[in-house]
Amino acid sequence: RVWRVVGGVSHGGVVTREGRELSSPKAASLLATGALVAEEELVGGQLHFRRLSGDGPDTGWVRLRLGQSELLVPHAEPRAPQRAREEQRPPPPEPRPPQRQRQRQQQQQQQQQQQ
Fold first, then answer.
1. Whole-prediction pTM value?
2. Strands 46-53 and 72-74
């Protein structure tokens, strides 16, 4: 699973630790806001990650929330362009003829079958 760093905007990123415990040493740099990380392990609101993009430590542990603030959120895959989505749709059904026209067609078919 991929996560995106959304917290730490005013500080330039979020604190990363070398281990899961809060007493574990902090990494030398912050994990930058906007960075993408891959989930290695998720334990009680703490994420062991491997950095995919952005600045910061290559690996470490971060908290997903701090109080009421989210620090990392699941990264949504980019949506397909509108045109590509439309191409994947099945074609619309052909319009049905009006009621009287359908009745005439049915009568003609019945007459042809009787002949």
1. 0.65
2. unpaired
